[in-house]
Specification:
homodimer, 414 residues, alpha/beta, Molybdenum Cofactor Biosythetic Enzyme, Chain A, Alpha-Beta Plaits, Maf protein, 3 domains, 5-stranded mixed beta sheet, elongated
Chain lengths: 414, 414
């Protein structure tokens, strides 16, 4: 079952907005048994949408379109669809009633703009998909033998609407089967080293095993096949990769999973990562059960007063040092009364680097009741990349300490 | 000058990886005067890459390809390019020498894998682009009259290599002119309300004015045209939107810009946003100059002990209340010795909502020396979306207080 995605919008081609919709839709389709072989992004001009619609619908079982359903003149997806289907656009009274209802509920003090009436237009023969989050209804229809579903470009509206497609999907593709998917998550090892360890277990068919490296640094192995194939291959992968396994997708989720099990708590004291450690942790549902407290301590004064980092230590080792990271982690653990504490100190850039301590140098420490573990990492790239990856690395290290893979040692701060 | 982008990689079509490269390249091309009318993503199969290459090179002046240059069997961009050019692939000794040098410098303890030798292959007639960040060299060549540049898929390698393209670009397109671009940033107003205020100032030609809404909530108006057109239109837009103007791209950057000017400092005490406020602030270069300290205070005990939120207040109003947000902001301002403090408390979800306080309800407060301002917002969508948008809204509010647009009032906490 071949599916394709068409995203519409000038803002995507100006590079001002990252197209996250296509990725979300691709995952949704893949999880339901479709094979996605192409995604296309075009701008607002109607002729570009029409040309792309002809191309992507040719040979596909399903096309999902996102964007171009807004109320303004430059939103032309409805028109392009009608032109390719060679039918007229007509106003649907049910859609217009729903739009007015949306305004009365969500913006009761504002008059309903007449311009939104355009959003009630649909090609003859198309069915409407209700929008629970905004004014533009979606559409389902077909171009020749290809099924087409058309959704707004606003991500959270699109995501909510996508789930309304499950029911028609069963009707359109009764033989579609959700594939069995197994995932194995690892960290603390690079992609090529992992490939060497698993050798022949990466296969393109029966089961299909793919490898994806997250921008945050962990690796996902994804197994697709029959239930039996997936079970056996997942077991073999877990066996080959035992020292690197994570219990959940990514270090933050793994840490929350692990600590929740035995009611342990964690705290963080961040300097250069500036909230990325706690933000990655806090993005996991259930983080509130394990996160005691977290501090961003950019300034030396804050490191001294809240965390008790001795001024002599700062002078002797410099603020970007494993000794200071260790003192911050131990101080934060005490300060917060947590079982574990993470600390980071480094140079996120773009300025502030030196020959000895270039931008991207980050010292990480994790403290538990037995002591502290430290390391220094180096991340290349933008300030944002340094912060995001260093935070993920710190969380990996905390997971390693919490799971007993990495042992902490008592140290004396001098 | 028409340009197109082709991104290659199964992981993009499985929806496991968001294609950020195309967006980055699109922005880079647009800023240099190209018009991008299409972006295509295909998977690893060579026939799919070949078909896409034929399609995107047809009628374009320039195509940028990203991905499929890795050392493994399933990396077929080089092969597809040679096939479309109808030339052979040959090993370039300079490229192989550079790959070996990269290994010796970056992974000195590891033997150089013979498999990487494939990355030294290039179609006859193609030029190499050096990779400063990894092993795969890039390529420049042409398909018929269309210039083609081919880059790795790893984002930070691609970004670094893109800048090596500036020089050949001048040679290939001597008449290419960088457009003059003006940007106006606003917040505190929705897209359609902003459109009503600026009416005829949104034009598709001479100058071209586009509107983009960030996922974080602020709006960017982008003016492209001659220097004179851009100056005049930008001034008109700023005039029409005065009460909503931001001095930089987004609330965090605006706040850092504004506070840096007169040496004021800020602190944050976050509950449900769990580090998003400080992470957004910390992502701005120069944030260290204004950010005093920041605390994630999930637990009531932390709210009481660090911020001095009275237990009676928590009991009377509930933890998700403007009164508690106000107490947190005032407590944090005092605790950190900062000029301003932001506080958030709410329900990020997915669990924990009630009929009275549904998931997505967030109370925000900003304190300064004169008192505190509070509001309650409601964000729909995932936990991540609630955290990201609520944090951005809190930063907008802090900007409004810091710039004097919003007045704080002394309150008594009972």
């Amino acid at each position: 079952m071949l599916a394709r995605i068409l995203a519409v919008g000038d803002e995507l081609l100006l590079g001002r907005t990252v197209d996250t919709n296509s990725s979300h839709i691709a995952r949704w389709l893949t999880d339901r048994g479709f094979h996605v072989d192409r995604t296309v992004v075009v701008g607002d001009p109607q002729r570009d949408i029409e040309a792309a619609l002809h191309a992507v619908s040719d040979g596909a079982a399903l096309v999902i379109i996102t964007g171009g359903l807004g109320p303004t003149d430059d939103d032309r997806t409805r028109q392009a669809l009608a032109a390719v289907m060679e039918v007229a656009l007509t106003e649907r009274s049910a859609a217009w009633a729903r739009i007015r209802r949306w305004y009365r509920t969500n913006l009761p003090t504002r008059p309903i703009p007449e311009i939104n009436r355009r959003q009630a237009l649909a090609p003859v023969g198309a069915d409407l998909l209700a929008n629970d989050r905004g004014t533009a209804p979606g559409l389902t229809t077909r171009i020749a033998r290809c099924r087409v579903a058309c959704m707004p470009g606003v991500p959270h509206e699109m995501m909510a609407m996508l789930n309304r497609l499950d029911r028609p999907l069963i009707r359109w593709f009764p033989r579609l089967r959700r594939p069995v998917i197994g995932e194995v998550w690892i960290s603390g090892i690079g992609e090529s080293a992992a490939q060497e360890l698993i050798g022949g277990l990466l296969t393109e068919q029966h089961p299909q095993v793919g490898i994806t490296v997250s921008e945050k640094g962990h690796i996902t192995l994804r197994v697709v096949g029959t239930a039996k194939e997936v079970r056996a291959r997942t077991r073999a992968l877990r066996h080959a990769l035992t020292p690197y396994l994570l219990p959940a997708a990514g270090p933050a989720a793994s840490l929350v999973t692990l600590l929740s099990k035995d009611g342990r708590t964690i705290a963080a004291a961040e300097s250069c990562t500036c909230g990325q450690v706690v933000a990655q942790l806090g993005a996991v549902a259930g983080a509130s059960a394990v996160l005691r407290e977290s501090l961003v301590a950019y300034h030396e004064g804050v490191k001294r007063s809240r965390l008790g980092v001795p001024p002599s230590l700062l002078r002797r080792h410099g603020v970007v040092s494993e000794a200071v990271a260790a003192a911050m982690a131990m101080g934060m653990r005490r300060h917060a009364g947590a079982d574990l504490a993470i600390a980071t100190t480094g140079i996120a850039g773009p300025g502030g680097g030196t020959a000895a301590t270039p931008v991207g140098t980050v010292c990480v420490a994790v403290a538990d009741r037995s002591g502290v573990a430290t390391k220094t990492i180096r991340v290349r790239g933008s300030r944002e990349r340094v912060q995001v990856r260093a935070a993920a690395q710190a969380l990996v290290m905390a997971f390693e300490v919490a799971s007993g893979r990495l042992t902490t040692k008592p140290i004396e701060l001098i």
